[in-house]
User: Fold this.
Amino acid sequence: MIIKEIQNMTLCALKQGMKDKDFTSLEITEVLLSRINGLGATLNAFITVTAEQAIKEAKDADKLIATGKDKPLLGLPIAHKDLFCTDGVLTSCASKMLHNFIPPYDASVVKNLKASGAIMLGKTNMDEFAMGSSNETSYYGPVKNPWNLDLSPGGSSGGSATAVAACLVPAATGTDTGGSIRQPAALTGITGIKPTYGRVSRFGMIAFASSLDQGGVFTRSVEDAALLLGEMAGFDENDSTSVDVPVPDYLGGINQPVKGLKIGLVRQHFDAGLDDDNAIAVKEALDVLKDQGAVIIDIDLPNIELSVPTYYVVASAECSSNLSRYDGVRFGYRAENYKDLNEFYCKTRGEGFGAEVKRRIMTGTYVLSAGYYDAYYLKAQKVRQLISQDFKKAFEKVDLIAGPTTPSPAFSLGAKMDDPIEMYLNDIYTIGANLAGLPGMSIPCGFVNGLPVGLQLVGKHFGEESLLQCGHHYQQATDWHLQIPEQFK
Amino acid sequence: MSLNKEQIKYLAILSRMDIQDSEIKDVVDKLSRIVEFVDQLQAVSTEGTEPMAHPLEQGQRLRIDKVTEDNQREKIQLNANETNNGMYLVPKVID
Assistant:
């Protein structure tokens, strides 16, 4: 009976359970490890399971608990996206290029959560170098959606989302460059938050597009997201774009009422392209918030439809620069049989990167190359400014912006692999927040054909608190976030 | 604008990345579609708009230039394919 309860419990409930001596951290860890290796194995959510280390850490946590010690996450199990460097543990970024990379240090996010007492159960699968929206570009094979194993969980943090949705772990970290936390959270029916750019340190996070990348969390409740985000966020000297702004007590402030909160509904989000049933679910969610006292105001983001092409210029350009470090010399994959240094580089990179990563590197190289820089890269950075100004104007009228996270529920594995543009357009509602550096969160707001869909909330810079408060109130009035896929109950 | 096979081969050289003959048709096709897709930006009026380099319009933070870490050469070089005497080995560069 306890086993059944443990797997479905949130971080906050597990913490209380340990405090009440209902179970130990070791018991929690053992229950979840057996799920990961048993029922969960078919999902391919993990690249590495760190069972031995987790059990040791759980025993240590139990000893501390027994002596009356407390830390915010003491004894609580989590998983990390395989993009966060973990000292002594394989960090592959789901690429052949890093299939043998053992970092000599912990990412700041990993370090912060460890210092707060969290236990790592393993490293989760993802799209190669976080480039993808379906988790199909992984060198380790696609992740499956626990709501239907023929469907994609979304990406790029698909392994983290699936692991949380299938109750293999109560929470996991992720990263979001264009929607890689919010889109998979929506498609697997869980909560996912991408904070403000600079809120969470990027030190030790393997870079894809540095002006857009931001770490965040997946959980099964907004309350848990507040707890976890509070522990991982904060200024870090090791990240030159980390922002020195105090981290509020997200969890402590979560009950602030939403009465009078002004929520903007983006007219452009309800144009063609949005699935009808998805639109209904989002509008019903806003009715719930209206009943709680929020005020819904129509707003415009006139340039938002340009966010996808802008993103694919900016992100590809940054990716082509960032990924130039993979040369086969200091770490990672190295080709065999070469006659000189140039061939050594070309073979190593040609064999080490997958098709999608190569396409993005070449797109980036193209838009940065002589004769094209002004027309593509500089132009995109100007359009990015326009998109960002649209958000600024909107936030003069509203506190939050709400809308759908994705155009439709989860799609079949393989369905969009032949058409890069169709795949990219899956992130149409999420990319704007990355371009403008704004915090965004997806929470489950209903089901379409038995599949979960998400409500996206976007806040002002460093406005995570109002996202969490609004999401928490919504979850007090609804039970979408409590639904668990039949096969994984 | 669509790209041709020669342009793709040149981009592969600039990117120091082998593209196999079996891959090239797919790369030409998909990259052309991506470039055509991003071409829609050309029609946007951006006159008088400053390019945006940082989401929070922050400048570069500086710090005092002092040693903050111990030397971990051996641990770091565990990831290298070939080292000798603390140095990374690459194919011969100068005859």
